[in-house]
């Protein structure tokens, strides 16, 4: 009983990249805050208003998101297999059971919402329930539960906080900036310029962070289920269907939701990699295959 | 989970908590003596079977060991794969203490092999007046017990479970968070 090996090794590289990205984001935001303060009262007022709007969005996001998706909470009686699958994963991951919801659409996908483990909702589409085998579905649900465990909704929201403020300042700035006091017009112009730059840089960084969180969630799913290849097979199936099935209902979904999907809707070419919320399929499959190799070789 | 783990998204499966499996052996005296809840002589341990060669040999060896020791005690072991991909080792033995020992032998074998984090739970079947058939489920991750009384297709008798909890909570470490009393449908015994 002394042996303490864990089933999978560590992924130090991924963690380092993730921390570096967060550090860079912090740096960019520090510049924004500095400029806002330097620009005096007007800049700070703008920031407070924009921040207030953003906080409202943050706290309403769960319900708004679920409603926008047309998600409907289902009881254990309606979806016994989905419930039982998630319950077992919750025991394995030592997690309280989240709320479980279903979206009626043929497009196979799944996502998790909620700021904390207690308020989390895991959602699957009827398409994914029909498409996947029990083991594959288990892998996808474990991926979503890992998002809940890692508090990805909170982390991505915090990461987006100042970027949203910057973007709102740009919008407000053009609105207010036209008239009024000549004396601080030039400093105000600087605020807007800096906001534009902050928004652009932080956008790229946030997308990178989102991709790293996806890798971490794939990894977490492999750790919880002990079956990395089942998740790989699920991703293959989903991506195959995503290209075949036209996107009907979910096309109306808000863009920000894409970050929480198991698989991003509307994936185009890999040229736009640095703007993508999800890593390309090949990279995810390669990472999962490395995990399977670690598992098989007994690390 | 620490802030650093949350930030880096690092996941490790929680290792089993301090073992409180044997609490059932002592609690059973009260269960049977005071409340007439008797063991049905069957228990199961549920785990994720990994598709690796060393895991499979561990499981085979373990099955042989339990079968060999069980032979003297009149115990039998059989395994069963459920629809969710979990494996059940079902042990039948008239003596509850022997059942606990056998279940512990299975989990110890997995733990020694380095797969302790793959064990989901252990389930013991009981029957009692006014309760009917009930199960005590041991959650290895948390080291806690909870009663589970299924009442037909996808239904559970929560009232009965709470009654059983009230009777036994001083002897048995019961899971304090009710939302973690996860049901197990389709228990094969």
Query: What composes the largest sheet of chain B?
Result: 6 strands, antiparallel
Kindly report the greatest chain-chain contact and the residue count on each side.
Answer: A-B, 50 and 40 residues
Low-confidence stretches of chain B: none
Name the overall outline of chain A.
Answer: globular
Inertia-based shape of chain B: globular
Q: Whole-number average pLDDT of chain B? A: 86
Structural class of chain A: mainly alpha
Distance between the termini of chain B: 36 Å
Number of strands of chain A: 4
How far apart are the first and last residues' alpha carbons of chain A, in Å? 19 Å
Please, how many helices of chain B? Answer: 5
Strand order of the largest sheet of chain A: 1-2-4-3
Give structural attributes:
heterodimer; A: 299 residues; mainly alpha; four-stranded mixed β-sheet; 64% helix; disordered N terminus; B: 189 residues; alpha+beta; six-stranded antiparallel β-sheet
Please explain how this structure is put together.
- The complex is a heterodimer of chains A (299) and B (189).
- Chain A has 299 residues and is mainly alpha-helical.
- Helices cover 64% and strands 6% of the residues of chain A.
- Chain A has nine helices and four strands, in the order H-H-E-H-E-E-E-H-H-H-H-H-H.
- Chain A has a four-stranded mixed β-sheet, sandwiched between helices.
- In chain A, strand 3 (110-113) and strand 4 form a beta hairpin.
- In chain A, helix 5 crosses helix 7, helix 6 (152-176) packs antiparallel against helix 7 (185-225) and helix 8 runs antiparallel to helix 9.
- The longest helix of chain A has 41 residues, at 185-225.
- The radius of gyration of chain A is 21 Å and the shape is globular.
- Residues 1-5, 244-256 and 267-271 of chain A have low confidence and may be disordered.
- Chain B is α+β, with helices and mostly antiparallel strands and 189 residues long.
- In chain B, strands 2-3-1-4-5-6 form a six-stranded antiparallel β-sheet.
- In chain B, a hairpin with a 5-residue loop joins strand 2 and strand 3 (87-92).
- In chain B, helix 3 (53-73) packs antiparallel against helix 4 (96-112).
- The termini of chain B are far apart.
- The relative contact order of chain B is 0.19.
């Amino acid at each position: 009983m002394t042996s303490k090996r864990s089933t999978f090794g560590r992924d130090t590289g991924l963690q380092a990249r993730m921390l570096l990205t967060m550090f860079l984001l912090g740096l960019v935001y520090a510049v924004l805050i500095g400029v806002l303060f330097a620009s005096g009262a007007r800049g700070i007022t703008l920031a407070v208003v924009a921040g207030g709007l953003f906080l409202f969005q943050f706290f309403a996001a769960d319900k708004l998101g679920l409603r926008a998706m047309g998600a409907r909470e289902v009881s254990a009686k309606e979806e016994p297999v989905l419930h039982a699958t998630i319950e077992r994963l919750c025991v394995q991951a030592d997690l309280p059971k989240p709320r479980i919801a279903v979206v009626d659409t043929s497009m196979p996908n799944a996502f998790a919402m909620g700021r904390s483990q207690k308020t989390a909702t895991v959602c699957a589409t009827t398409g994914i329930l029909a498409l996947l085998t029990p083991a594959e579905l288990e892998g996808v649900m474990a991926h979503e539960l890992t998002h809940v465990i890692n508090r990805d909704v909170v982390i991505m929201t915090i990461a987006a906080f100042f970027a949203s403020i910057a973007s709102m300042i740009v919008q407000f700035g053009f609105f207010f900036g036209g008239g009024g006091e000549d004396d601080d017009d030039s400093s105000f112009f600087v605020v807007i310029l800096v906001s534009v730059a902050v928004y652009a840089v932080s956008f790229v960084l946030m997308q990178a962070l989102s991709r790293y969180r996806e890798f971490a969630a794939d990894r977490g799913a492999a750790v919880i289920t002990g079956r990395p290849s089942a998740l790989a097979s699920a991703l293959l199936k989903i991506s195959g269907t995503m290209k075949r099935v036209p996107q009907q209902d979910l096309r109306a979904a808000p863009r920000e939701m894409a970050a929480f999907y198991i698989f991003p809707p509307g994936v185009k070419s890999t040229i736009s990699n640095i703007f993508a919320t999800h890593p390309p399929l090949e990279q995810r499959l390669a990472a999962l295959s490395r995990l399977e190799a670690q598992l098989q070789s007994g690390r | 989970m620490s802030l650093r783990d949350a930030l880096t998204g690092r996941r490790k499966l929680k290792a089993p908590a301090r073992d409180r499996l044997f609490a059932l052996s002592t609690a059973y005296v009260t269960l049977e003596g005071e409340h007439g809840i008797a063991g049905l002589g069957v228990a199961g341990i549920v785990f994720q079977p990994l598709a690796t060669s060393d895991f499979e040999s561990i499981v085979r060896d373990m099955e042989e060991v339990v079968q060999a020791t069980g032979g003297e005690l009149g115990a039998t072991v059989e395994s069963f794969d459920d629809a969710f991909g979990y494996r059940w080792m079902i042990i039948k033995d008239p003596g509850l203490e022997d059942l606990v020992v056998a279940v512990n032998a299975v989990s110890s074998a997995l733990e020694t092999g380095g797969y302790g984090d793959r064990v989901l739970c252990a389930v013991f079947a009981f029957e009692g007046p006014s309760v009917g058939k009930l199960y005590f489920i041991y959650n290895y991750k948390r080291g806690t017990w909870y009663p589970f009384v299924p009442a037909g297709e996808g239904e559970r008798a929560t009232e009965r479970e709470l009654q059983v909890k009230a009777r036994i909570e001083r002897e048995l470490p019961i899971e304090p968070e009710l939302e973690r009393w996860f049901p197990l449908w389709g228990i094969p015994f």
